[in-house]
Amino acid sequence: MPNFAVLIAAAGRSSRFNDPSYKKPFIKLHQKPVWLHSVERFQKRSDVKQVIIVISPEDQEEFMMKFGPNVAVLGLDVALGGDQRSDSVRNGMQKLDDGIEYVAVHDAARPCVSEDDIQAVFQAAEKSGAAILATPVTSTLKRVGTDHQIEETVDRKRLWQGQTPQVFRKDILLNAFQEIGDQQPTDEAQLIEMTGGKVSVVPGSPLNIKITTRADLRLAGACLDAAPKPKFDAPIHPFADDNLFR
């Protein structure tokens, strides 16, 4: 069985979430912070040997004050992010333990990914070296100008919406980062594309939403209510009644 590490990306600015007190990974969802839901999805897997949460340097002091017990109990590593997503993933990879063979990158703000989808994308990455979850585009797509007028209707055939986790053989990801220099891909799949690599697409679920706005938070709560409950034996949040990050 190969060894996986999971990078939980939580270093974004949350500019569209529009909450004066919380960034979206740290807000409560079903009585625990969003990022902790994401960690739970991977923590119990026997092939996941390391979980690294990547946070913004500006959040470090308060994050450790509020969530330090969780980090200790769950044996997590903490890395500090950079200006862009790719910088944050690079920084997180510097914390990888020896013996890690595959790296999964997952958005902290996707708390609803299913265990079955994680299993599917992990297995696909073992076969191809690089795989992501994605869903086919089903809505009609319009390209709109700055004046909010439609410029064209875009053919949606063969278009998919990328999700996370995105999973890669460690050497493939490391080599790709070395090759791109200062370029800034929007996700890890594009990084592999930029260096000539191939990435497999695994059909995911539309319930694996990314929380971007307050409305998304309510939708994520409904998705969690409808999903099978993950089994987890270890304590998750020693101070669950605390008023998190407020």
From TrEMBL:
Pathway: Isoprenoid biosynthesis; isopentenyl diphosphate biosynthesis via DXP pathway; isopentenyl diphosphate from 1-deoxy-D-xylulose 5-phosphate: step 2/6. GO terms for molecular function: 2-C-methyl-D-erythritol 4-phosphate cytidylyltransferase activity. Pfam families: IspD. The record marks 16, 24 as: Transition state stabilizer. It comes from the Bacteria. Keywords: Isoprene biosynthesis, Nucleotidyltransferase, Transferase. It catalyses: 2-C-methyl-D-erythritol 4-phosphate + CTP + H(+) = 4-CDP-2-C-methyl-D-erythritol + diphosphate. The record marks 156, 210 as: Positions MEP for the nucleophilic attack. InterPro entries: IspD, IspD/TarI, IspD/TarI_cytidylyltransf_bact, Nucleotide-diphossugar_trans. It is an enzyme of class 2 (transferase). SUPFAM superfamilies: Nucleotide-diphospho-sugar transferases. This is 2-C-methyl-D-erythritol 4-phosphate cytidylyltransferase. It comes from uncultured planctomycete 5H12.
